[in-house]
Amino acid sequence: MKLREKLDQLKKPFAKGSKWERFAPAVNAFDTFLFVPNHTTHKGAHIRDAVDLKRTMVTVIIALVPALLYGIYNTGYQYFIQTGEAFTFIDAFLHGAMKILPMIAVSYGVGLAIEFAFAVYRGHEVNEGYLVTGLLIPMIMPVDIPLWMVGLSVAFAVLIAKEAFGGTGMNILNPALTARAFAFFAYPTYMSGNKVWVSEATNVDGVSGETILGSLASGAEVNYSMFEMFSGAIPGSIAETSTLWVLVGAAILIFTGVGSWRIMLGSVLGAAGMGFLFNLWGANALMDFSWMNHLIVGGFAFGVVFMATDPVSAAQTQKGKWIYGILVGVLCILIRVFNPAYPEGVMLAILLMNVFAPTIDYYIIEGNINKRKKRSLKTANIQTA
Amino acid sequence: MSIDIKIRKGLQLNLKGAAANIIKQAPQTNNYALKPTDFHGVFPKLLLKKGQKVKAGQPLFFSKYQDKIKFVSPVSGTLKEVQRGAKRKILNLFIEADSKQVSVKHKLPKLESITAEQVRELLLESGNWPYIKQRPYDVIADPDRSPKAIFISAYATAPLAADLDIVLDGQQEAFQLGIDMLAKLAPKVHLSIPSKGDSILSSIKNCEIHRVNGPHPAGNVGVQIHHIDPVNAGETVWTVGAEDVANIGRFFLNGTFDASRTIAVSGSPVAQPSYYKTTIGASISSILKDAEVDQNMPTRVINGNVLNGDSVAHDGHLGYYNNDLSILPEGNRYRMFGWLPFVGSSIHSMSNTSLSWLFPKRVYAPDTNMNGEERALVVTGEMERVFPMDIYPMQLLKACMSQDIEKMENLGIYEVAPEDFALIDYSSSSKLEAQAIVREALDLMIKEVG
C-alpha cells in the first residue's frame, strides 16, 4: 500500500506529542476521505456496523445530485427561453454550471474553513454534516445572488445557527435554511420579486420571471401547466423547481433509510389537507389554487424532502416525527395563503417547526415518564394495601 | 404455567465459526486466576498472602464495602502471585493448582426444611453469592435487600453465544435443585427458555417459565425483566446465570463450591469451534490450541460474546461469568474509500446504505475495526430499532452523559444494564460507546442514590 505509507509519512508531524498536533483534525479530515481508518474497538462492542456518519452524509449528497443537475440545466433553460436565443441542452447546462459551480465553491470554501477552524479549536474531528449543508445552501438561493452574499449567509449560518449552539448535532435550526432566511431578510431585493429568479434578469432587458407563488400572491395569471410545475421547467430557486427529481432524491433517502419517511409523508398529508380545506373555502386566487398544485410548486417538495428531514433539527421521537411533519405541511400552506409578503411558506414553516420540535418531543417523552411513574405507584399501592 | 414473550426489535447476526454441538473436556492445566475486575464495583480485601496454600472454596478476598460477600478459590493449590495495576489495583490472583484437589466442605441442613435465612447464609459463606447479580445497577446482589423476583435466562441470543440447552444438558437435576434453593430467597422465580424447539428446561418446576422468541437482545435477562415484571424505582430483582443455577444446585448437593463452566469456543479464526467443559479461572491458552485458533493472524480473545465481553490476553484466563470464549480477527487495517455507500457489503450493516440487507441469512466474519470514527449524534431512530424496551434510549443516554440523575430515573435507568445497549454500540452511525456511558451512569447512581 504505497499511498498509505506516503500518507503516514506526511502525517508524522501531526501525531500526538509532535509539533503540529493541534492541527491533526484538519489533516485527518482529508485522510479519512481516502481511507477508513485502522481504529479498532477498545471498549463496548467488539464488532461494529459498516455504517458511519460519512456514509450517511454522502448518501444525502447522492440524493441531492439529480435535483442539482436539473437545477443547473433549468437555470440555462429559463435564461435562453426568455431571451429567445436558439440553444441546445449543452448550452443550457453550461450556462447554468457557470452560474452555480462558483456558488457551490464559495459555500464549501467559507463553510468548511469555519468548520475546520472550530474542529482544531475544540480539538474534535471535523464532522461531515457540512458537506450536506454546504451543497444545500446554493441550491436554495436565487441564481443571481452575488457570491459575497452566499459567503456571508454561510458564515452566519455556520457560526450563529450551528457552532454557537455547540456544533454538529446540537443546533436547533437547520443551518441551510438559516442561511437562506438570513439572505432573505438581509437582502430582500436579491431574494424576492420578479427580477431574481431567472439568470441575468436584471441585466438583460425583457428578461423577467416571477415564481408561480409570487404571481399568485400579486394576483397575476399563472401560465404554466401542471406538467411544467411537476417537471420543474419554471422559475424559482436553483434546485427547488423540479418535484420530479426531488422525488428521485426522496426515493434514495427512503430506500436507504437516511431520510425519515414519516416526516415526508406527514408533511405531504398536512399540506394536502390544508390545501384542500382552502380549496373548499375559495375566497381568493391563492385559496383556489389546487391543493395538488401546492405540493408541486415552490420549494415545498425540496424543503420537505431535504430540510424538514434533517434529523438534528427535526423531532427525534417516532410519534414526534409524524406531528412535526404534519405541522410543517399545514404551516407551509397557511403562510402561503395568508401572508402574500412571503409567497414561499416552506422555509418559514420548517424553521418554525425546528423551534417547536424539542417541545413536541418533550411531551411525548413526558408521556413515557408518566407511564413509568404510574406503574411505580401502582405496585407501591399493592404493597401497602 | 408458561407465558410467551415475542420480541420484534433487535438484530440476529449470523457469524462464522459457531461452536459445533460437541462437548470436549478442556486440556488439563494447573494455571488458574481469579480476576477481581470481573466483579464490577467490588473493592477486594485480600485474605491470603502470596505463597500461601488455598483449598477450593476457600475465600481469597472479600468485598470492602459488603464484607459478607466472599470470593473463593475455584481450585486448591498455592496463591502464586498477586498482579497489580495502576494505583495498586488488583488485576489477577494467580493460583497454581495442586494435582490433588481438596475442597472446603460445608455442613448442610436437611434440604426439605431449609429456611431462607439458612440458604442466604450458606450462599454467602460458601462463596456462591457472587453468582447472584441484581438490577438496578447490574452488580453483585446486595444480601441485605430482598428482591421482588429472581430472573434466569436460559436463552442466549447474542452472536455466537453458547446454546444453553447444550451447556445444561445432563445438569437438569442440579439446575432444579438450584431453582428450589433460589425460590426460598424471593417470592417468585422466572425462568426464560427459547420458544423454538423443545428446551430441556421446559419441565423445570418451582418457577414461572416464559417462552421467549425473537432476535438478540431477546435473550438478555434485562429485556425479559422489562416484559415480565419491570423494575420500578426502589425495587430490586436478582438475576442468576443459567449454569450458575446448576452450580448452586451442586453446592447444595455436595456441600462444596462448584466452579464448573461449560464454554463455547467460537469465531471465524477458530478451526474447530466446539464446547469445552472447564473451570472458572482456567488458563485459556491450552483451550485455544486445542480448538486450533489461527496463529498466523492477529486475533482478539474475548471472555463473553462479541458484543459485550471483555478482551483477554491469549495467555489469560477464563472469566467468572461467561459461557462464551469468542475469537475475532483484529481489524487494524485501512480500507480505501470504504465509507462510500454500497461499497464493501461483506461487512454487515443494519443500514440500507449497504447491500448486506439483501442477504439476511448471510454468515459474516467481522473483525474489530470501528468502520469509522466517533462523531456527534446526528441520526435519530436507529437506536430504537435494536432496543426492545419501552424506554427512549437516545434520551436516556443523553441524560447519562449530562449526569442528570432525576432525568435518568425518569427515563428508566433502573431497568437497564450496559449489555442492553450493546447493539446500540454496534449499530450507531456516530460510533457512540453506549455501554460505557451507561456503566458510568450506573456507577454514579450507586454513589449518589445507592
In total, the number of domains of chain B comes to 3
Report, as a whole number of angstroms, the end-to-end distance of chain B.
Answer: 35 Å
Number of continuous helical runs of chain B: 10
Largest interface: pair, residues per side? A-B, 60 and 76 residues
CA-to-CA gap between the ends of chain A?
73 Å
Structural class of chain B: alpha/beta
Major sheet of chain B: 7 strands, mixed
Low-confidence stretches of chain A: none
User: Based on DSSP secondary structure assignment, what is the total number of beta strands of chain A?
Assistant: 1
Please tell me about this protein's structure.
The complex is a heterodimer of chains A (385) and B (450). Chain A is mainly alpha-helical and 385 residues long. Chain A has one domain. Helix content of chain A is 66%, strand content 1%. In chain A, helix 3 packs antiparallel against helix 4, helix 3 runs parallel beside helix 5 and helix 4 runs parallel beside helix 6. The model of chain A has no long low-confidence stretch (mean pLDDT 89). By secondary structure, chain B is α/β, with parallel strands linked by helices. Chain B folds into three domains: 241 residues, no CATH class; 67 residues, OB fold (Dihydrolipoamide Acetyltransferase, E2P), CATH 2.40.50; 79 residues, no CATH class. Chain B has a seven-stranded mixed β-sheet. In chain B, helix 3 packs across helix 5 and helix 7 packs antiparallel against helix 8. Chain B is globular. Classes of the chains: A mainly alpha (385), B alpha/beta (450). Chains A and B meet through helix 2, strand 1, helix 3 and helix 17 of A and strand 21, helix 9 and helix 10 of B.
